[in-house]
C-alpha cells in the first residue's frame, strides 16, 4: 500500500486545485476521481458547457434580431444544433485535457475510481479492476454536489431533466418549463429561449435569484421578461403527470390561482445537495450537519483532525471559485502555512443577458444587522461603451458604511458585469472606501466607468447624471 501526504477525493475545481497547490508545496499527492475525465461537474456538465451554450445562443440571437441595427445584412440564418453542441464538447475536452496535463506537470498521481474513506488514514478506491488501498497522512474530501429532485417529479432524463440533460437536448424544445429561478434555471432557460423555445420559469419565492439584492433581482427579472421569458413568481408546483410527449404540471399562485402548464421538457433546477453517500464518511465518524453538509472548523478540518472538506460539501455558496480558494487553503494549512478564505469577498455571478454579479452584503442584510450605510447607483444607459454594444439595460449599486465609507457590497446587473465585479472584489479585499474607487481613473469609454460613477454617487456627486 502506497502512502501519500495528501489524498484528495474528487477532481472538481476545489479538488484538483488543492492537489496542485499541495504538490507545489512539496507534498506527495494522489487525486482520486470516479469520472474518466477531470474537472468535476463544473468542467464536464456545469459551468463550462453552460457558458459555451450561452455564448453560442447569444451569437445566434444577435444575428437573428440585432444584425440589421448594426447595418449588417445577412441572408438565410439557420441553427446547426449538432455543430453548436460539438463546439461545446470541444471546449470541455480542451479544458479537461488541460487539467490532466496540469496533474502530470505537478506530479500528482491520478487514480480513477470511486474513493471511499475507510479510516482516518486510509482511502479505498473502487474501480472495475477491484479495490485499491491508499495510505493517507491527510485526506481532503472534495466530493461535490448533485441536483436535487422533486419527490413528485423524479427526473427521467428525457421529459423531466436536470441541468446535465438540459445541456445536450437533441432538438430545441417547443415549450421548456423551468422549475427554479436561480442561476442554473435562468441561464439554461436563456439558452433555449434564444434558440427558439418558449420558456416558462416557475419559482415558489417572490423573486428570481433570491440570494441577490432585491433591486438587482427585480432589474434582472424585468429584463428577462422583456426578452420573452414567462416568469411565474410566488408559484408552487403541486402535482405533475409525465405523458409520452409532454409533462402536465399543476401550479398554484395567489395571483393566478390554480393552473395547468404543459411542456415537452421540464428542467428541475431547485438546487443542489452535497454528495456524501458511498464515501464512508459516517462509518468512519465524520460529523455531518443538517442538510448533509460536512461540519468543518475555520480551517476546513472535520471533527477528524487529519480529514478536511471543501467546496459544495461544506457551508457557504456552492461556487467553483469558492471551492478553489478552499482547496488552496487546505493545502497551505497542511503544509504549515496560514491557509485562509475570506468568505466576505466571494463574488457570485448569473450569466444571463444582462448578467448579474455581486459581492458582499445586500441592502436587506445590512438593515437586518443594523449597519448604517450610504448607497450609490448609476445606470448603464448613459454609458458610451454600453450604447456602442447595444446593451444599455442595468445598473451598478455600491453600498458603503455611512461613517467610514468602507465598501460593504457591490451589486450589478448589466453587460459583462461578470468581468466588472473583479474590481469590486479587489477593492473590498483591500478595505477600500467608495472615495478610493471614485478617485481611481477608469479608461474611457469602458463599462467600468459605471462602477466609478456609482462610487461617486455614494457621495451624491456622480458626473454624468
Distinctive features:
single chain; about 35% helix; about 475 residues; five-stranded parallel β-sheet; alpha/beta; 14 helices
Total strands: the figure is 22
Q: Give the low-confidence spans.
A: none
N/C terminus separation: 69 Å
Annotation field: number of helices: 14
Can you characterise this structure?
The structure is a single chain. This protein is an alpha/beta fold. The chain contains 14 helices and 22 strands. Strands 1, 2, 3, 4, 5, 6 and 17 form a 7-stranded mixed sheet that branches. A 5-stranded parallel sheet has the order 8-15-9-10-11. It has a 5-stranded antiparallel sheet with strand order 18-19-22-21-20, sandwiched between helices. A hairpin with a 2-residue loop joins strand 4 and strand 5. 45% of the residues are buried. The mean pLDDT is 97.
Summarize the structure.
The chain has 465 residues and is an alpha/beta fold.
Give the SSE layout:
Elements: E1 2-9, H1 13-24, E2 29-33, H2 40-45, H3 47-65, H4 81-105, E3 109-112, E4 114-119, E5 122-127, E6 130-141, E7 145-147, E8 160-161, H5 163-166, E9 175-179, H6 183-194, E10 198-202, H7 214-226, E11 230-232, E12 235-242, E13 247-253, E14 257-263, E15 265-268, E16 272-274, H8 281-284, E17 307-309, H9 320-334, E18 348-350, E19 355-360, H10 363-369, E20 373-379, H11 384-389, E21 395-401, E22 407-414, H12 417-429, H13 434-438, H14 448-458
Parallel strand pairs: 1-2, 1-6, 2-3, 6-17, 8-15, 9-10, 9-15, 10-11
Antiparallel strand pairs: 4-5, 5-6, 7-16, 12-13, 13-14, 18-19, 19-22, 20-21, 21-22
